[in-house]
Design brief:
- About 15% of the residues lie in helices and about 35% in strands.
- It is α/β, with parallel strands linked by helices.
- Strand 4 and strand 5 form a beta hairpin.
- The two termini are about 25 Å apart.
Length: about 240
């Protein structure tokens, strides 16, 4: 079956921060809630919304796109996980200091990833910003499927356990003092990896140049059909709010 979903309608509402916690030293979880969130259609993994953060009076709100990590429709609670880069961008700065009771605006959602149940092998590739979506997709994979995940994070402290029914092999890469997705390590790892490319589906996301490079290798050098590669440029070095 095709993996692309139709574009979902965009809706905008307010939600309240109800909980904040560190998933890892560089990943901050923010839980938001509000009855209006029930009007959002969230029914597939890797869907994303745009959050608009509080700012000083008279200053336009900054909006950034983030993957829905978990959605509890019964209680209208949504978890968003923020990769903290240590920069001074509005999203990272807000997430690092977010407190219960704050109000954010939520717009979306946009389409996510439709699990290709005809695939025997899933290949998931991304930097730290792609971790919430990779975890969400893995949770939806059925038993009997093989999955390979390649993820670049800062260091071992950023490793996260994945819950999945699929037979999973995970390769963690460490960026160290560099920013995950910009080191070239993911590109080199994928070029050298023993990938299960027969009857496969690829999900790839992260920094724009890395995504373009890996996608080209998979399509040209590995011969994976374009229709079997779902690639998302989540961000771009030096460009604010690059995700489309």
């Amino acid at each position: 079956m095709p993996f692309m979903l139709p574009k979902t309608p965009t809706f905008r509402c307010q939600a309240e921060v109800i909980d904040v916690g560190a998933t890892t030293p560089h990943m901050q979880r923010v839980s938001i809630a509000g009855g209006a969130l029930r009007q959002l259609t969230i029914d597939s993994p890797a869907q994303w919304v745009k959050l608009f953060f509080p700012t000083a009076p008279g200053v336009a709100k900054a909006g950034r796109a983030y993957t829905v990590r978990r959605w509890d429709p019964a209680h209208a609670v949504m978890d968003i996980e923020f990769a903290l880069h240590g920069d001074h961008g509005p999203a990272s700065r807000w997430a690092a200091g977010a407190r219960p009771g704050e109000i954010v605006e939520v717009a979306g959602p946009r389409r996510g990833h439709c699990i290709n149940t005809d695939a025997r092998n899933y290949i998931l590739i991304g930097d730290a910003t792609a971790l919430p979506a990779i975890a969400s997709i893995l949770e939806h994979l059925p038993a009997g499927m093989r999955a390979q995940a390649f993820v670049e994070v800062v260091d071992e402290a950023e490793h996260q356990p994945f819950a999945t029914k699929a037979a999973l092999d995970t390769v963690w890469l460490h960026a160290g003092c560099e920013v995950p997705g910009t080191t070239g390590r993911l590109e080199l790892e994928i070029q050298a990896a023993d990938l299960a490319t027969q009857d496969c589906q690829v999900w790839l996301a992260g920094e724009s140049f890395m995504v373009r490079s890996v996608r080209t290798h998979l399509a040209v050098d590995r011969g994976i059909p374009e229709r079997a590669i779902d690639a998302k440029a989540y961000w771009k070095v030096g460009v604010a709010d690059a995700r489309g």
